[in-house]
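Below is how a single chain appears once it has passed through the pipeline. First comes the sequence as given, then the structure the pipeline wrote out for it. We keep one example in the README because the format questions we get most often are answered faster by looking than by reading.
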Amino acid sequence: MRFGVVAVDGCWDSGLTSVLDVLRTAHAARERVDAGLPGLECVLLTPGGTPITTAGGLLVAAARPLEDAAAAGIDLLLVPALGAQSPATMVDALMRPQIRAVRSALRRWTADGGPAAAACTSTFLLAETGLLDGRSATTTWWLRDLFVQRYPKVTLDMDRMVVRDGAVVTAGAAFAHIDLALSLVARISPRLASETARALLIDQRPTPSVAAFTDHLHGQDRLVSDFEAWARTHLHLQVGVADAALALKVTRRTLERHVKEGLGTTPYAFLRALRAERATHLRATTSLPAEDIAHRVGYRDAGSVRRLRTGR
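Resulting structure:
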């Protein structure tokens, strides 16, 4: 999966770098979870492809113009925080020509159905496009009043660190960038998100968000993580959701509810996605015939694997 990380002049240094660090650590941790997991690639994007300077003076030379995100094969656009320090500087930042260019690019991207994510002050960029109208979102606590005033059509949820509504994900204050990045990893694999958090010692951060996110990973999502682990271990067998529920000692309804809440999908769809992922990996890394690949992902024949690819 290719994440397009958007950098602009004056962006928050830790927001930009923490997102990159979490996603790159997750990419490296894949081998410890499942070698068949898709890679996580970060592509730095800037308006016009020009170098930018962060709020702390770091120089970033991007390889790709933001305007070429679709051509670059980007799967999700992620916008780290702007370096605004007050409501007044936040409003001023939104009027900058470079930020206007980002807003225009976001409008085009989301108009074509592209998913987007933002944290802290950059949630204002998503709101400015109208993308958050009629959706639930969150923002940084110290700009709550300004956000409500400017975007009355957005349902603001300040009780959660990360809010996902459809194809849009928003996160709270500056260090919520870590939680945002982990939530994106968790959509690919809850186990990979847990492994990434452990690798970075994220659960040892002395902040309220850590307790919330650690509870999220190891509490309500524990069943989702266990389901993923069981599924990856049993992909070669012709098993289904009922078998998983029995093995995990929960009812099918409980499993379905947890997977829906944690991953936004059904256990059947997730199991199917894991099989497609494993089949793709085997095709790319082995010379196994289609029939053998089918058997290794729990299907009787190659036709079933082909239907996985076409979604039928």
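Residues 204-220 have pLDDT under 50 and may be disordered.

See the next section for the split statistics.
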